[in-house]
Every structure is written in structure tokens, then in C-alpha cells.
Amino acid sequence: MDPRIADLRKSYERAELDEQAAADLPLAQFRSWLDEALAAQLPEPNAMTLATVGSDGRPSTRIVLIKGVDQRGIVWYTNYDSRKGQELAGQRFAALQFHWVELERVVRIEGAVEKVSDEESDAYYASRPLDSRIGAWASPQSQVIASRAVLVANAARYGAQFLLNPPRPPHWGGYRLVPDHWEFWQGRKSRLHDRICYRLDGGQWHKQRLAP
Questions:
Q1: Residue at 106 is within a domain
Q2: Catalytic residue among 191, 195, 199, 209, which?
Q3: Could you tell me if residue 63 is inside a domain?
Q4: Has 58 been annotated as catalytic?
Q5: Which of 180, 182, 169, 200 is nearest to 85 (CA)?
Q6: 79 within some domain
Q7: 20 to 30 A from 166, CA-CA: which of 5, 7, 8, 86?
Q8: Tens place of pLDDT for every residue, the chain, 212 residues?
Q9: What is the rounded CA–CA span in Å between residue 107 and residue 95?
Q10: Is residue 108 a part of any domain in this protein?
Q11: What's the CATH number where 54 sits?
């Protein structure tokens, strides 16, 4: 056992989350916490962990950035041919997690994933910086490449081909996770943390407290 790791301790004492004070709907509670994370100017408050499962049953995680949230779900954009894209093609259920360390908060979301419309993907792609739009063409995401020089050469080639108006690649676009389970975790003293979950049943959200 490495004492430098095993002996790390932090007492969570910033806030509390009571089930009576929590919003009746999980989306409202999420928007409230997201607004607070943005107002606190946390580093990358939009970063979330995406967990998927492959055909072999092995889970994998990576960080993606939330680009939209409404009653339909939570949206991010990526390469459809990437590992996560291939896993979502075979298993449509996934999980997301936000960890706002400075606020001592975690939000977990589970549900089915669907692709957003072509119109939504086109609109977001067009809003990206030019280098990012070219990068979507240049990177064969998750594939083995010989060196970084491959990416640089690809970017140069597609930049020369498309100039200032690259179209959205057919292999790139958005996903939306449609939640059926939310959990809001607020760190508390003595590890007696607050955990409020929302479970969708029969079209209605049910709010419950979980033991930490």
C-alpha cells in the first residue's frame, strides 16, 4: 500500500442536498447545478465522462464535452467510427458523469443513446472553428496511426481541398443520451454524503434518497 495515496483525506463540508429542497424534476436540478458550476468558473465544467460497453462486455470510458441539454437529453459530438461510436452502435445504453471537484459534487446519468438529426449536427459543425472542422476530417479517431505526422499531413490535405468551407464529414455528428436515471451526489462530512436519485417509471420521475 502506498501511503501517499492511501492516506489522502478530504472532509467534504461545502454544501448539502436535501430531498425536500431538490427540484422535483432532474433536469431542473441539473440546470441549477450546471449554472453554479459555470458561475464558479470551474475548469471545464462542461467535461463529462462517457461510459460505453463493447460487444465483448468490456466497459470503456473517456471524457467528452456536453454541447446541449434540454427535455430530450444531453448532447455531445464525436466521430461515429471511433471506439465509442462502434460500441454505441452495438449497445445503445450508456452512462455519463460530471465531477465538479471544487463544488464537491457528482452527477450521474444513465439512459439510451440516439444520434441527433443531421440538421443539428450540421448546425453545430458549422459553428466550430475552422481548424476543428478540418480536424474532424483529418483524424481517423481510435485507429492506429504511424505517427503524428499522419495527422498533420491529413490536415494539410483536407485544408487544401476544402479551404474555408469544409462540409461535415459523414462519419461525424452528435449523440443524445435520453436519461431514465439521474443521481446527484453532494459530499458531506464523515463520508455521510447526500445522494438523491431520480428514476423514470411510467413516464413519471420518482425522487429518492440513497445511502452513501
A1: yes
A2: 191
A3: yes
A4: no
A5: 169
A6: yes
A7: 86
A8: 888 898 888 899 999 999 999 999 999 999 999 999 999 999 999 999 999 999 999 999 999 999 999 999 999 999 999 999 999 999 999 999 999 999 999 999 999 999 999 999 999 999 999 999 999 999 999 999 999 999 999 999 999 999 999 999 999 999 999 999 999 999 999 999 999 999 999 999 999 999 99
A9: 11
A10: yes
A11: 2.30.110.10
User: Which of 96, 126, 101 is CA-nearest to residue 112?
Assistant: 96
Q: Which three cell numbers stand for residue 84?
A: 465509442
* DSSP states along 34-65: HHHHHHTT-SSTTEEEEEEE-TTS-EEEEEEE
CA distance to 123, 142, 190, per residue, from 137 (Å)? 17, 13, 50
Which domain range does residue 183 map to? 10-128+171-210
How far does Cα 131 stand from its chain's mean position? 22
| Residue 35: all three cell numbers together | 449554472
Structural domains in the chain (count): 1
Provide the 3-class DSSP secondary structure of residue 88.
helix
pTM above 0.70, yes or no: yes
